[in-house]
């Protein structure tokens, strides 16, 4: 049973999220910063009348900030009761991934990626990393991950 | 499970109704208990309680909740006995009835949570049944020795209690008599009226009831007053009190007689109550055309209105742009103004829809105090002085847990034991008062006042391991530390997370209100809460700071001042806090830029042109802003996600540009981030303060 995934890019690397967890994609026109929020939170955006927080994937992955372009996207994901956006460099593809294509990441990656990558899928010559969405977004509590 | 679909449809209505009836039942049972305690009958409360239980039973049978039907049935049975006894209840009956109500309530909760109602707890029905036998065994004051000799017309107008009073009086040796007074114009002219007769009779006899009887009377009159009396006085004295003939005196008791007549007539009475409930349920309980609406529907209406308000802001800006471009917009502007008025009226109407009476919200508190009275062994009286103040349902729902905490604390911690109170020269019974005042600008003030021992600042400080607080605000600060408790051993009550931190979190963080403390050692403590009447729609000041727009609730801002940078005073060593003079006192000016973490590279030190003055723990504090953009109505969207739930940010709003604008709670922002950096941790995850 292959599963539909949304593929997005951060700093040249490709990541994927099950399409079932994704509500929609929005282009990014800036977020309202929230004082005192964790540093990886870009701020608030309004999506169809709802106000949701946006996590900056670059900041979260420890990558340098770049100038946002027309390609920048907010991947709006559903996490239980929460709706949270993930700001990525671009997102323009959906892929069907067969479980057979998906393997656990090499131990070295596991350690280096702070658990953000939970599997790697081989798609032809490309390597697409499946992210652990709850982990990337942050813990249930604002203080849980010691970021503040 | 053929009924399950229907049940699901009917359940919300059932739950709402059951909830309401339980509230009423609790109220009446407490009234009954209060009477029992003083050895009095309370026939009306017994009857109302019966009525509520009867309806609960009927509704529960409809949705097929057998356990509730059984409990309600047995409670009814014991109440029927009490009613026959003239609304008198043996003291021992109150507790099983309370227990029964609690069990019914528990089962209603289970149904509300989508569970099955648990079976009837072991022994409860037996205890309720035992009441019946106990009551009929010992019996009410037995009127066996005397029966009343009343004609039917009179008899039907007497209540069971009145009838009992007469027979009991007769049994104890008094004379039960009927004294007829016939009023007339001549008698009135000489000062003999029913009122003067009443007064004179009162000196001779105990008046049980005065019944006006119309119809031909002695002396050609068409009205007679029948006074039913218990007396030791002779007929002549009584007759004279009634102005003499054509009045008359008749004895009512014809002893000895069969015991039956006194009780039999009361039998149909409760049945009549019951059938009345069935016949006219709607008018009875929804009198005045009241409608019950699910809160979610009100929320929906509010959402729609919110969209309209946002749209109006956009329209306003579009028109402003047109005007600036030189277009003829006079009529548009007029329409826009009218539209604004209509939206304001609409908003007021919707807010009114969402308002609930504070008194209704607090109806559980007497029950809470009753439970505490039992568990602590303290004597407590709860006085509610809430008038007809109203609150938004959303605010009320959040506020109730805070008030429960405060009342519980007052009984549990603040009030002394009866012995201690007597030793301190106070009345044995402690008093907890809850008072509300409507304050200006959409705020409600609630005070929880006790006459207990007061907060011992020294003990609090010792317990928290901090220096003794010198002001009441500082003391409150220590009390509100997470997990702080003044009790040494966690007992049944204080073990349930008694923290004042919860009270503060609800009042200050969730509702954007204010919490104050006044305490006097030995004399008692007052907690003063100020909360907004509604938190969804509010008037806000919009301003700009460090290139971004923000909003604050108008109600929270005490004053707007101009700041002349040349007149700012910088005290040495105050780490950048500057002072401004306002009407003879120095007010600290905080840099909002810095508080928001948006300090510009030029380091202007927050000396904005304008400043908003806000009370932070009672002290005025000025927040410098760059530019005021005006006042407008906003729809507050609370931020639920833990990533962005931070102190100082009350929520977000849309000013019409599609970009969220932060709504700040300046007092909380200053408190959370200023010099004394007390980190107020946010509520973890989905935890709800209870």
From TrEMBL, chain A:
Stored Gene3D superfamilies: CheA-289, Domain 4, SH3 Domains
Pfam families listed in its UniProt record: CheW
All residue ranges annotated as the CheW-like domain in the record: 2-142
Domain of life, source organism: Bacteria
InterPro entries (alphabetical): CheW, CheW-like_dom_sf, CheW-lke_dom
PANTHER family to which the protein is assigned, alphabetical: CHEMOTAXIS PROTEIN CHEW, CHEMOTAXIS SENSOR HISTIDINE KINASE-RELATED
Protein name stated in the entry: Chemotaxis protein CheW
Naturally occurring in which organism (per UniProt): Pyxidicoccus parkwayensis
UniProtKB/TrEMBL annotation, chain B:
Residue stretches making up the CheW-like domain: 537-675
Histidine kinase domain ranges (all copies): 296-535
Catalytic activity, as annotated: ATP + protein L-histidine = ADP + protein N-phospho-L-histidine
Modified residues (Phosphohistidine): 54
Location of the HPt domain: 3-115
UniProt cross-references to Gene3D superfamilies, sorted A to Z: Histidine kinase CheA-like, homodimeric domain, Histidine kinase-like ATPase, C-terminal domain, HPT domain, SH3 Domains
Organism: Pyxidicoccus parkwayensis
UniProt enzyme class: transferase
Low complexity bias (residue ranges): 250-267
SMART domains: CheW (SM00260), H-kinase_dim (SM01231), HATPase_c (SM00387), HPT (SM00073)
InterPro entries listed in its UniProt record: Bact_Chemotaxis_CheA (IPR051315), CheA-like_dim (IPR004105), CheA-like_homodim_sf (IPR037006), CheW-like_dom_sf (IPR036061), CheW-lke_dom (IPR002545), HATPase_C_sf (IPR036890), HATPase_dom (IPR003594), His_kinase_dom (IPR005467)
PANTHER family linked to this entry: HISTIDINE KINASE, SENSOR HISTIDINE KINASE CHEA
Region annotation Disordered: where it falls in the sequence: 241-289
Protein keywords: Kinase, Phosphoprotein, Transferase
Full protein name: histidine kinase
Domain of life per record: Bacteria
One Pfam family this sequence matches: CheW
Lineage: Bacteria, Pseudomonadati, Myxococcota, Myxococcia, Myxococcales
EC number(s) on file: 2.7.13.3
């Amino acid at each position: 049973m292959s599963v539909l995934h949304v593929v997005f890019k951060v700093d040249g690397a490709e990541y994927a999220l099950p399409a079932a967890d994704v509500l929609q994609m929005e282009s990014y026109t800036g977020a309202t910063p929230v004082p005192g929020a964790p540093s990886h939170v870009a701020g608030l955006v309004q999506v169809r009348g709802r106000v949701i927080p946006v996590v900056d994937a670059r900041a979260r992955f420890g990558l340098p900030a770049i100038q946002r372009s027309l390609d920048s996207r907010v991947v709006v994901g559903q996490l239980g009761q929460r709706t949270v956006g993930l700001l990525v460099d671009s997102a323009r593809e959906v892929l069907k991934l067969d479980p057979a294509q998906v393997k656990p990441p090499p131990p070295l990656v596991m350690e280096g990626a702070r658990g953000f990558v939970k599997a790697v899928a081989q798609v032809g010559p490309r390597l697409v990393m499946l992210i652990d969405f709850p982990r990337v977004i942050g813990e249930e509590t604002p203080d849980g991950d010691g970021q503040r | 499970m053929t009924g399950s679909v229907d049940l699901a449809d009917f359940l919300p209505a059932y739950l709402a109704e059951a909830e309401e009836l339980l509230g009423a039942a609790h109220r009446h049972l407490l009234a009954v208990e209060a009477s029992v305690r003083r050895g009095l009958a309370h026939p009306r409360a017994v009857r109302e309680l019966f009525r509520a239980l009867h309806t609960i039973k009927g509704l529960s049978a409809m949705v097929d909740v057998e356990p509730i039907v059984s409990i309600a049935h047995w409670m009814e049975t014991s109440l029927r006995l009490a009613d026959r006894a003239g609304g008198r209840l043996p003291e021992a009956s109150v507790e099983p009835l309370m227990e029964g109500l609690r069990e019914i309530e528990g089962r209603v909760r289970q149904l509300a949570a989508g569970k099955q109602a648990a079976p009837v707890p072991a022994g409860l029905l037996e205890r309720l049944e035992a009441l019946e036998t106990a009551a009929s065994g010992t019996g009410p004051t037995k009127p066996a020795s005397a029966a009343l000799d009343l004609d039917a017309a009179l008899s039907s107008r007497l209540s069971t209690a009145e009838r009992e009073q007469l027979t009991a009086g007769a049994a104890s040796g008094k004379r039960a008599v009927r004294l007829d007074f016939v009023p007339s114009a001549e008698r009135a002219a000489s000062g003999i009226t029913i009122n003067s007769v009443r007064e004179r009779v009162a000196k001779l006899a105990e008046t049980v009831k005065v019944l006006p009887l119309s119809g031909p009377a002695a002396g050609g009159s068409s009205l007679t007053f029948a006074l039913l009396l218990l007396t030791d006085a002779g007929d002549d004295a009584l007759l004279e009190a009634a102005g003499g003939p054509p009045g008359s005196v008749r004895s009512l008791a014809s002893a000895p007689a069969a015991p039956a007549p006194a009780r039999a007539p009361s039998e149909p009475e409760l049945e009549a109550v019951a059938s009345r409930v069935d016949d006219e349920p709607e008018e009875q309980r929804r009198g005045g055309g009241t409608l019950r609406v699910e809160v979610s529907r009100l929320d929906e209406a509010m959402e729609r209105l919110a969209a309209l308000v946002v749209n109006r802001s956009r329209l306003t800006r579009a028109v402003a742009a047109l005007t600036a471009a030189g277009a003829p917009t006079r009529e548009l502007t007029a329409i826009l103004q009218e539209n604004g008025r209509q939206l304001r009226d609409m908003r007021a109407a919707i807010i009114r829809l969402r308002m609930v009476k504070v008194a209704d919200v607090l109806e559980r508190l007497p029950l809470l105090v009753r439970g505490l009275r039992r568990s602590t062994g303290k004597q407590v009286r709860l006085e509610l002085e809430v008038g007809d103040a109203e609150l938004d349902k959303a605010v009320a729902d959040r506020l109730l847990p805070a008030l429960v905490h405060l009342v519980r604390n007052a009984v549990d911690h603040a009030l002394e034991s009866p012995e201690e109170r007597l030793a301190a020269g106070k009345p044995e019974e402690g008093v907890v008062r809850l008072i509300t005042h409507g304050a200006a600008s959409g705020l409600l003030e609630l005070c929880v006042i006790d006459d207990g021992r007061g907060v011992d600042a020294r003990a609090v400080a010792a317990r928290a391991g901090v220096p003794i607080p010198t002001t009441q605000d500082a003391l409150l600060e220590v009390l509100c530390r997470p997990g702080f408790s003044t009790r040494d051993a966690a007992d049944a009550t204080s073990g349930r997370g008694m923290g004042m931190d919860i009270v503060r979190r609800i009042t200050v963080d969730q509702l954007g209100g204010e919490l104050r403390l006044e305490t006097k050692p030995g004399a008692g403590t007052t907690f003063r809460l100020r909360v907004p009447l509604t938190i969804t729609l509010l008037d806000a000041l919009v301003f700009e700071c460090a290139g971004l727009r923000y909003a604050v609730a108008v109600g929270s801002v005490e004053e707007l001042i101009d700041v002349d940078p040349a007149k700012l005073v910088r005290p040495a060593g105050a780490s950048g806090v500057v002072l401004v003079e306002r009407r003879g006192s120095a007010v600290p000016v905080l840099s909002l830029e810095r508080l928001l973490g948006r300090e510009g590279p030029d380091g202007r030190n927050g000396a904005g042109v304008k400043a908003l003055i806000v009370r932070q723990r009672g002290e005025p504090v000025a927040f410098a802003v760059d530019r005021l953009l005006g006042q407008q109505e906003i729809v507050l969207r609370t931020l639920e996600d833990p990533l962005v739930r931070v102190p100082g940010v009350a929520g977000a709003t849309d000013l019409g540009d599609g970009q969220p604008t932060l709504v700040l709670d300046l007092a909380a922002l200053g408190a959370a981030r200023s010099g004394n950096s007390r980190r107020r941790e946010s509520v973890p995850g989905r935890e709800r303060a209870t």
